[in-house]
Amino acid sequence: ELGGFGMVFVLAGCFGLGMLLADTCNGLLMHWLVRRSERMAQHAGRVMSAVIACLALAVVAVSHGKSHVAVLEAVWDAYSVWISLGMTAIALLILATCTWYFQSKAGKTEFSKVNSPVAK
């Protein structure tokens, strides 16, 4: 019922849209990081590489785990979208926390007021 070239094109289109969304968010985040400062620009590539590597490792771990444990396959089939969104949200939260930590450690605790549209 769900086979054929039509399903292949639908899945390829969904994958393409997902990659487009992920790359757009990555580009916007990189633009914001590079614009922040020269010191931050040096670390931006490393930070984003680490986030992408962690997400890739998480995908591999989930796919490897579900092929060996039946319970994980059932959970993944039922909640795959929510698990993927949660993993991405956690990665972005860790990135934001690290950014805030390193900026406050450098003595720039007022960075949220500088970028505020109200302050301009």
Task: Report what the structure shows.
There is one protein chain. The chain is an all-alpha fold and 120 residues long. It is built from 4 helices and no strands. The longest helix is centred in the C-terminal third of the chain and has 36 residues, at 70-105. It is elongated and about 60 Å long. The model is unreliable at 116-120 (pLDDT under 50).
Short description:
This protein has 120 residues and is mostly helical.
Key words describing this protein structure:
120 residues, mainly alpha, 4 helices, 86% helix, 0% strand, disordered C terminus
**Could you say which structural class the secondary elements and strand pairing correspond to?**
mainly alpha
The gross shape turns out to be: elongated
Terminal CA distance reads 58 Å
Mean pLDDT: 77
Strand content: under 5%
Number of helices: 4
Largest sheet: none
Oligomer: single chain
- Measured as a percent range, the helix fraction is over 70%
Total strand segments: 0
> Which sequence of SSEs, written as H and E, runs from N to C?
HHHH
Radius of gyration: 19 Å
Name the poorly predicted regions: 116-120
